[in-house]
Specification:
By secondary structure, this protein is mainly beta. Among the domains are: 31-166, Immunoglobulins (Immunoglobulin-like); 196-394 and 405-420. It contains two helices and 42 strands. The strands form six sheets. The chain has a 26-stranded parallel beta sheet that branches. The chain has a five-stranded antiparallel beta sheet with strand order 3-5-10-7-8, with no helix packed on it. A five-stranded mixed beta sheet has the order 4-12-11-6-9, with no helix packed on it. It is elongated and about 80 Å long.
Length: 517
Amino acid sequence: MGKPHSYGAISIFTHRLYDSIQSVKKLFSFLIAVTLFAALFFSGGCRKEQFGNGTITFSTDTLTFDTVFATFGSTTRYFKIFNDSKKAVMVNDIRLMHFVGTQFRLNIDGVSGDHLTEVEIPAKDSIYVFVEVTVNPNDQSTPYVIIDDVQFTTGNKTSTVHLQAFGQNAHFHYGDEISNGQTETWTNDLPHVILSRDTNPGIYVKCGGTLNINPGCKLFFVGNSGLFVEGTLNAIANTWSDSIVFQGARLESYYTDKPGQWFGIVFLRGNTCVPHGNFDHCVVNESSYGIYAGAGLSSDISSYLGSSQRPVVAMHHTIVKNSLYNALYGFNAKITADNSLFYIAGEHLVKLGLGGEYSFTHCTLYNSGSKYVSHEKESLLLSNLVSDGTSNFEEPLKTTFTNTIVYGSLENEIVFSNVEDLNLANFDNSFSYSLIKAKADTFALFTTVNNQNLFNQDPRFKDFSVGNFILSDSSGYFSPAIDYCPSGLGKDIFDNLRPVSKTTNTNKYDIGAVETQ
């Protein structure tokens, strides 16, 4: 439990981010080599027709309609299918998948229709696929981003060209940059759709730049795009009625709460400035990394050491959920979170590595996996070091958890990693009045303050499967987290007043983000 932790923080993230920036055009690439063995035999000495093992390729992997329509409008674009081999290739099946009904229409090699079979592409030749889309931007049921697929089947192999159309009812940001000295403010009159460009995989707030996101804004991220910050990001709302939402752009029901639909909000460690992020009444959903503070492109771990360039992130009344990897990742960063909720991730839910300063007050951390991701790693990782395989790099770690729940479906939901198990000089972890799922004896070895915590007691959430983390006692089973804390914040995550006494213990506060009313 105390071994150096080499969870690949630098190499894995750098690889993913580098690929995202350098290979944006390949983010949706699912082109599969298609082979076809067919021989037609005819009696009477007729010629034998042969189809080769050639590979079909496409002029693009994503066909984008970026025309803005004021009312009902349509436009036509095309892509080409190439057969570069010396023999003909037979494509057995071409069909539109109808993710969004009939808004897209196809014309394949001069034949109109959304489903064709046995389409031959001659040797060293190509065919055209024309695509038309009609969008009604005034129809509230129409997605802000309309996406469909054209699927090609040859034998038992398939390949896909993605279709995406954008209506006038949104602000579109194509790899935008906010430069040094520039302040940009996004309004909530229309949704904001973020797309990648070759140079930037989303929005890039450069050192010295500021992006203010007004209350009520909804941000939809296409593909592997994200929000990358070297300067300052302010996403501050006053209530949940005007909350700010960050999520994927796929609005079909199949994609609801599906992790990994976009990259995440990343605070990049800069050379000349300290990134800042401020969140209040925000929801971050369906990303790979929910909020990642302290990332960079360098594979040299020594460049991440020291406190002078730590990103500073403050989170209030914020929900981060359904992340492919981590809901919150701090890598030698400074993060303050209160009245915030983190749940469902494919790796460590909250991952705090290579030291830093972190404070959590009245937060709820919960992971049990979902139909999309499994829960195999502890919900909370605390580490003051990282290993590159040959050397250990260490930074002081200071964490404070107050009135906070750390719970999940594993037997143990907290893992520690420092150089020497019992040397806490650079490993200062404080937990007080918190409900924790962990082995109490091991937990005590890695904490400097262990004050009035509850261990391995079910908080009895109302229904965590639908994100309801109210501490329920309606079934007659009283949650041990109710009325437990002697002090706390004046409101909970949903702006309900604290304390609300449910027992004879007046003026006591519930553990976690939600105060049971």
